[in-house]
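Weekly modeling sync, notes
Attendees: AB, CL, MP (scribe)

Item 1: holo prediction request
CL wants a bound-state model with 3-isopropylmalic acid before deciding which constructs to order. AB pointed out that an apo prediction alone won't tell us much about the pocket. Agreed to run with the ligand included and paste results into these notes for async review.

Input as submitted:
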Amino acid sequence: MRLKITVLPGDGVGPEVTSEAVRVLRAVSDLNGYDFQFDEHPIGGEAIHRHGTPLPAATLEACLQSDAVLLGAVGTPAFDSLPREQKPEAGLLHLRRSLGCYANLRPAVAHDPLLENSPLKAEVVRGTDLLIVRELLGGIYFGEPRGLDPGRDAFNTMRYSAHEIERITHMAFQLARARRRKVTSVDKANVLETSQLWRDVVTRVAQEYPNVKLEHMYVDSCSMRLVTDPTHFDVVLTENLFGDILSDEAAVISGSLGMLASASVGGKVDLYEPVHGSAPDIAGRNLANPLGAIASAAMLLRHTAKLEEDAQDVEAAIARVLRDGYRTADLARGGTRFTVTTSEMGSLVENALADVTQQRHAYHAV
Ligand code: IPM
Ligand code: MG
């Protein structure tokens, strides 16, 4: 198994967490005799500093030539006042669009050892295992026309074609088939035309999946249900902006935004990134939680490399470290026994992974 992975550490805590994710991927490669190659490039504020643009041509070219892209985070307050198309975030949006990955998968799972870490009651979150499927290349993020007349007036356009809705709906239903076979489609069809089209297309496509249950939910109601009754959900299918908001909200289920992983798939090259963002307030201090980045690496093994067993090994290693009581600062609440740094957490997962993988190999050998 050979994999060419382009690593884009980016801004803020991005470099710290991606180096732990790379450490774990190297361990997977060594333990199993694979050949994973890593090639690092700048994106976001880091790229603006070095090359004057948030997505240099060489970065994009490297991404397009690879099997998968592993990204840390983009965004730094230093560039907040730049016009929108020159901001670090524009680099990420341009990359997503150039890769063509229209489906953003964001799982939110309540890990038993972290139940006390969620601000929600343990009995509410226990057993939650949901997957947000966010449309990533359409809607108000990209809709034209858009414009700003500073201090006077501004506008954006929320726009969807039936084709864009169809392909993300197929993705959600295919994923639901391999899970608990339920899709909650989230929209605002009582107010927005884009949502009326969304609901019609989702309802039509759903007929091709008779074994998957479909329900529709308004986004305001969904935002409440996510934190009052999260076990209600299996696959949550929604458009770009609603998915951005709901996925941060869903993070409270896992105890911390630092736990959340994501995969952006469906295009030429898949893109993996933790959901948490650049967190400039704690950047460079070895404090950030690398588990979201490491769990994103597990998704890379699953979705791009089709190495399901290795993906499960990484997830089992994360679970073991949490069960043993190790927590980064963001999770240091409740039953914390050992507070660890970013790099200590990475190395704990690496050690646990060696154990888990050796046990699996020994099991296969008998
Ligand atoms: C996310 C982020 C991005 C988004 C930003 C950084 C452009 O919030 O991945 O959720 O809005 O998609
Ligand atoms: Mg977001």
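Recorded for review: The domain at 119-254 is CATH 3.40.718.10 (Isopropylmalate Dehydrogenase).
Action items: CL to compare against the apo run; MP to circulate these notes.
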